[in-house]
Amino acid sequence: MTPKIFLTGVTGYVGGEAFSQLYSNHPEYEYRLLVRNEEKAKLVSAKYPSTERLQLVVGSLEDEDIIEKEAAAADIVVHTADSADNEPSARALTRGLASGHTAEKPGYWIHVSGTMLIAGLDKAEEDWLRRDTFHDIDDVALLTDQLPDHCPHRPIDKLVLAANDKPSVRTLVVCPPTIYGRGRGPVNQRSMQVYNLTRFTLQNGFAPVIPPGTARWDNVHVADLGAFLGLAVGAALDPGKRSDPAVFGRHAYFFLEHAAHVWSDVARAVAAEAERQGRLGDGTRPHVRERSAEELGNPSWALHEHGVAARARKFLGWKPVGPSLEETIPEIVESEAARL
């Protein structure tokens, strides 16, 4: 039987990359793609014309009836559109998957959250919570059952995880860290964290370092994230993997990480590359300056995050192979300069 996949966020950075890889590798699957409006639908159709196996569904994340209906009809849902923080879509997907499936034939929900969930917990007020590293196998009970609601993305994570209480729903939650690299989707091909830092640098003539300059994050190339989502879809179609609670279920919680960076090092690398490209040519020095988090609007560049991605490697055989963040900085500076 041909798998039926409902994907949200095809016009976004992550969803666009995920669908690019899925469609390239499995054009035989049936796809239903949620797009916000007719204007977005035209942009998607320009790259992916509708066929018998590929259909666009016009609706927003607040159109719960549409989302519920599509989830009920799908074998697999891949939710990437504002998935970490949008409540109406999470509730609609839960209802749709529950009503359209049975315990004997569950619906599978692949949900994109994010490691902002654990950012800054190295300085948490709660003694029991304060740590600088979280392991997605060893610490899974803490990640899924114990984190407080004030952690970013946690309220939606709880809704997704609770869906497993229904016998007809199985979920897989993935938390990517800093994502970089040019996406291959039909609309947005740009990430945010490093790109916004680069944009600030080009606009202001210097790269900001937030004291003490030690904040560290994990990172992953967008193509490696897309490859993981493809592996997750494959797991939902594999009788052995989809029945494994380590892959789909309440404790099926995945981090991703290829390498790590220190934000002050990234700032210095961006400034050096922008100077090399002649984009900081006003003679003003230095091209790296300290600024407080408050002055910069409290960006994530001030926070520490480290999540060990053991689960993806152990249970899905995920191996990141994309270029490093450092290797990608020249492309990032060029792309942000072009946008400006």
From TrEMBL:
SUPFAM superfamilies: NAD(P)-binding Rossmann-fold domains. GO terms for molecular function: aldehyde dehydrogenase (NAD+) activity. InterPro entries: NAD(P)-bd_dom, NAD(P)-bd_dom_sf, NAD(P)-dependent_oxidoreduct. Pfam families: NAD_binding_10. GO terms for cellular component: cytoplasm. Transmembrane segments: none annotated. Residues 9-92 form the NAD(P)-binding domain. Residues 275-296 are annotated as: Disordered. Residues 275-294 have a biased composition (Basic and acidic residues). This is NAD(P)-binding domain-containing protein. It comes from Neoarthrinium moseri.
